Amino acid sequence: MLTPTYDVHYAVQAAAARDQLDDEQRATFDKGIALLAHDPFPPVSRPRGSAGDNRTVRLTRNSLVEYAVGRGRLLILAVAVFDDKDVLIPEA
To answer: What domain range includes position 80?
Structure first.
């Protein structure tokens, strides 16, 4: 039996951050979102708050998303994109 697929929606700021990704980053990001749409509670995600319906996950190597799950919907609230050029103290 297949797990239900959640409808994916984006908050305005999250969509804007997603839209700034280059083609390669966007393809990887979209694959991650598709996985979340099938299972929004993967073991690598973490709850934000006591209910557990708001979560964060390191979606790709360079992106973190905060999202909410409810009533068959997956709402992407925030997208943070990391770039190694933006590191104050690079690891040696």
So the answer is: 7-86
N residues, the chain: 92
CA proximity to 65, closest of 54, 74, 78: 78
Cα–Cα dist 30/6, whole Å: 14
pLDDT at 3: 63
Residue 82's nearest CA partner among 55, 63, 60 is: 63
**What total number of domains does the chain contain?**
1
**Is residue 69 over pLDDT 90?**
yes
pTM of the model: 0.85
Confidence at residue 86, expressed as pLDDT on a 0 to 100 scale: 72
> Is position 76 within any domain?
yes
DSSP character string of 6-52: PEEEE-HHHHHHHHTS-HHHHHHHHHHHHHHHH-S--TT-EESSSSS
What is the DSSP secondary structure assignment for residue 5, as one 8-state letter?
P
Mean pLDDT of 72-81: 94
